[in-house]
Write a structure and sequence with these properties.
With 166 residues, this protein is an alpha+beta fold. Helices cover 33% and strands 29% of the residues. The chain has one domain.
């Protein structure tokens, strides 16, 4: 392949990738008053990284479920991560303790789905997983927000259809 042919092929690949990404629809995620969320902190009582991870994951999953011409706006109203922060005397540090009782993950959100030629659908709901410790989780043990991610995977499939079906 000549150098100019490689350059044209690479340019064509970039154009096709950009078109495919745009065809998937648009996603916008925001947090409404995150300072009042129930529990989004880590062991250092910092919520910044958890909110960043959650926003990124919501955007990624939403873009995978949208089709051409759809626009999804998600407003996160409250977050309560799985488990609770407790002080560990042995570690001399705070740790997140998971007991599987009333400490299941919960995320309250409001979303608006707009599609070309259809009225916008606006829904507010709380997504939760009461059995988060009793089921298999394909996210590994050191994956941040692994219980919340599995819960959101199931919610996206229920609300917008399975990725495999598309």
């Amino acid at each position: 392949m000549r150098p100019t042919t490689r350059c044209i092929t690479a340019s064509l690949a970039l154009v096709l990738a950009a078109a495919a990404a745009q065809a998937a629809g648009t996603v916008q995620v925001s947090f409404v008053e995150p300072e009042s969320f129930s529990d989004v902190r880590d062991a250092r009582f910092d919520s910044t990284e958890n909110l960043r991870q959650l926003k990124s994951y919501l955007e990624e999953q939403a873009s995978r479920h949208l089709t051409d011409g759809q626009a999804l706006t998600i407003e996160v109203l409250d977050v309560d991560l799985a488990g609770e922060i407790r002080f560990s005397q042995h570690l001399h540090n705070d740790v997140r303790v998971l007991r599987g009782r009333a400490d299941w993950p919960r995320i309250t959100l409001r979303y608006t789905l707009a599609s070309v030629g259809q009225p916008a659908r606006r829904v507010e709901q709380t997504v939760y997983d009461m059995a988060y410790l009793q089921r298999l989780n394909h996210y590994v043990g050191d994956e941040p927000l692994r219980y919340e991610k599995r819960m959101l995977d199931e919610w996206f499939d229920a609300q917008f259809g399975s990725i495999a079906a598309k």
